[in-house]
TrEMBL record, chain A:
This is Polar amino acid transport system ATP-binding protein. It comes from Klenkia marina. Residues 10-244 form the ABC transporter domain. Belongs to the ABC transporter superfamily. One of its GO terms (cellular component) is plasma membrane. It is a peripheral membrane protein. Transmembrane segments: none annotated. PANTHER family: AMINO ACID IMPORT ATP-BINDING PROTEIN (PTHR43166), GLUTAMATE_ASPARTATE IMPORT ATP-BINDING PROTEIN GLTL (PTHR43166:SF9). InterPro entries: AAA+_ATPase, ABC_ATPase_HisP-typ, ABC_transporter-like_ATP-bd, ABC_transporter-like_CS, MetN_ABC_transporter-like, P-loop_NTPase. It comes from the Bacteria. Keywords: Amino-acid transport, ATP-binding, Cell membrane, Membrane, Nucleotide-binding, Transport. GO terms for molecular function: ABC-type amino acid transporter activity; ATP binding; ATP hydrolysis activity.
UniProtKB/TrEMBL annotation, chain B:
The chain crosses the membrane at residues 36-55, 85-109, 130-150, 257-278. One of its GO terms (cellular component) is ATP-binding cassette (ABC) transporter complex. Residues 85-278 form the ABC transmembrane type-1 domain. This is Amino acid ABC transporter membrane protein, PAAT family (TC 3.A.1.3.-). Belongs to the binding-protein-dependent transport system permease family. HisMQ subfamily.
């Protein structure tokens, strides 16, 4: 389980995923090196969330492999719980536990799954919450926070387990521009501290600023990938160009 | 598994055949599930054989067999018990329907908010407190013997109707609490979404909250339904000739307990289909709603 020196942290190889007759992923390849930030872009329904769910073992792939630190995690013999312990996931819809306070949401996994002491986990959680400006909300229940606050708590909850990779699914889709800025600042901060991140996003501006690589997902494959300046600024594929021009028309780049 | 591309004639892009790796994985999963099925089957079988041997070799077995499992007695008692069971089924169906309607009504009353509804809420709460606390057998006596003793015009005297009424009184109190738990388990955001679409409180309850509530408590409701299936046998205390009473009469004549076993088995058979139906219904609902296949 020790990281393969120099190898990618997360390596997706030819992943296929179908829902009944609907082929969502038809052979996706994606390799994410340590300390790198990869942004997945693509139209709604192009399979970004599905790919992240496959990588976090919430969906079973229909073909292909996902490797985490060189270990094939799609092998039915691996312990899926042990794999998920090394991943941090933030969902599009937050998925905070409504029956637990913010603090308990954040300390749940460190204490119950990773066996850290409660006081240590609590200190760390408070520090993280302080960093996102929510220290005074530690005792609140999630439903009493704003959307942006919930989203930031969800990110902190994922960070608290010190994951190998952080998988972020359109974490800003529900927020106003100011909150988007806040959440994005948090992600950028996490990224500069060396976290490996894969994020699905519709925020091209953000992808441009934070990502090292942008991957355009279309019709079930990664159609084009490269540095943001190239993929977003001067795409090779006509379909990428079409997608981006629609986004520019909508004023989102 | 066939080549997937061939099964999707309509799709413009077809998938290649699964890779050797994927075929290996599928084979492994199939092997693993076969193995766990076999282990489960094997251990069940071993247990059944051991239980069978222990019981049939016990010193008292011949005696027990002739008093509880006599085929002749079973055959003789069967028609009467079956006729009695028909009465139980009638009580069950009519009573069950009344219980659901009344229980749901009570639950909705109990979850009404605002001071204007305080009397209704109080009434419903009192009802639940009384009839959930009262032993069924006492409710049966009070309703079955007390009500006719008033000799009021129009009050029915049939033990069938009175017995059903008593059972409905008790069970609707239980079921109301189950429904209430279900209603309260629906996340408040659902109410917000429904009301913001312009639904009235009543529409919100009927279209959004209750369907989710019922789904959440289906297992608990089923539990109460099976309990009800057994408790319909209690109307025999009012003199109605149901399956239990029919068996009792038979036992009284022959001093052989087989008729009780027959009646018991019939009640078990009655409970099985409803359990399977509820399983199927909740499994289908889960499949339709779940977003991930793994968890
Ligand atoms: N559990 C499921 N069962 C059936 N189909 C599903 C399921 N989950 C996703 N899909 C389908 O898979 C396709 C891809 O969905 P996905 O959520 O991955 O898109 P996305 O790229 O994340 O879109 P968005 O940008 O809108 O979030 C969609 O057509 C969707 O209908
Ligand atoms: Mg998505």
């Amino acid at each position: 389980m020790s990281p393969v020196a120099g190898g990618p942290v997360l390596d997706v190889r030819g992943v296929v995923k179908t829902f009944g007759e609907n082929v969502v992923l038809r052979g996706v390849d994606l390799s994410v090196d340590e300390h790198r930030v990869v942004a997945l872009i693509g139209g709604s329904g192009s399979g970004k969330s599905t790919l992240l769910r496959c990588a976090s073992l919430l969906e079973q792939v229909d073909d292909g492999q996902v490797l985490l630190d060189g270990e094939d995690i799609t092998d039915p013999q691996v312990d899926a719980d042990a794999v998920r312990r090394r991943l941090g996931v933030v969902f599009q819809a937050y998925n905070l536990f409504p029956h637990l306070t913010v603090l308990d949401n954040v300390t749940l996994a460190p204490v119950r799954v990773h066996g850290r002491s409660r006081s240590e986990a609590t200190d760390e959680a408070r520090e993280l919450l302080d960093r996102i400006g929510l220290a005074d909300k530690a005792g609140e229940y999630p439903d009493r926070l704003s959307g942006g606050q919930q989203q930031r708590v969800a990110i902190v909850r994922a960070l608290a387990v010190r994951p190998r990779v952080l998988l972020l699914d359109e974490i800003t889709s529900a927020l106003d521009p100011e909150l988007v800025g806040e959440v994005l600042r948090l992600v950028r901060e996490v990224a500069t501290q060396g976290m490996t991140i894969v994020m699905a996003t519709h925020e091209m501006g953000f992808a441009k600023q934070v990502a090292d690589t942008v991957c355009f997902l279309d019709q079930g494959v990664v159609l084009e990938s490269g540095p943001p300046a190239q993929v977003l600024g001067d795409p090779v594929e006509p379909r990428t160009r079409q997608f981006l021009s629609r986004i520019i028309d909508a004023g989102r780049l | 598994m066939a080549v997937r591309g061939r099964r999707r004639p309509g799709a413009e892009l077809s998938l290649p055949a699964p890779s050797a790796l994927e075929l290996d994985r599928r084979a492994f999963r199939a092997r693993r599930s076969r193995r766990s099925t076999l282990v489960a089957l094997g251990s069940t079988l071993v247990f059944a054989v051991v239980a069978y041997l222990v019981i049939t070799r016990s010193p008292g077995w011949p005696r027990v067999q002739s008093t509880f499992f006599s085929l002749d007695n079973a055959r003789a008692a069967f028609p009467d018990i079956l006729r009695g069971l028909w009465l139980n089924v009638q009580v069950l169906v009519i009573g069950g329907l009344c219980v659901v309607v009344l229980g749901l009504g009570l639950a909705v009353l109990r979850t009404l908010r605002g001071p204007a509804f305080a009397p209704l809420r109080l009434l419903a709460t009192g009802y639940v407190d009384v009839f959930r606390g009262m032993p069924l057998i006492i409710t049966l006596y009070l309703v079955g013997f007390g009500l006719p003793a008033l000799r009021l015009q129009g009050v029915p005297t049939s033990p069938f109707i009175l017995g059903t009424a008593a059972i409905v009184l008790t069970y609707s109190a239980y079921v109301a609490e189950v429904f209430r738990a279900g209603i309260e388990s629906v996340h408040p955001s659902q109410r917000a979404a429904a009301r913001s679409l312009g639904l009235t409180h009543r529409q919100m309850m009927r279209i959004v909250v209750l369907p989710q509530a019922v789904r959440n408590v289906t297992p608990a409701l089923l539990n109460d339904f099976v309990a009800l299936q057994k408790d319909v046998g209690l109307i025999s205390v009012l003199g109605a000739i149901d399956a239990v009473r029919a068996a009792q009469i038979e036992v009284g004549q022959t001093f052989n307990f087989t008729p009780y076993v027959v009646a018991g088995l019939l009640f078990v058979l009655l409970a099985v289909p409803s359990a399977r139906i509820a399983d199927t219904v909740s499994a289908r609902a889960r499949r339709r709603q779940q977003s991930g296949s793994v968890l």
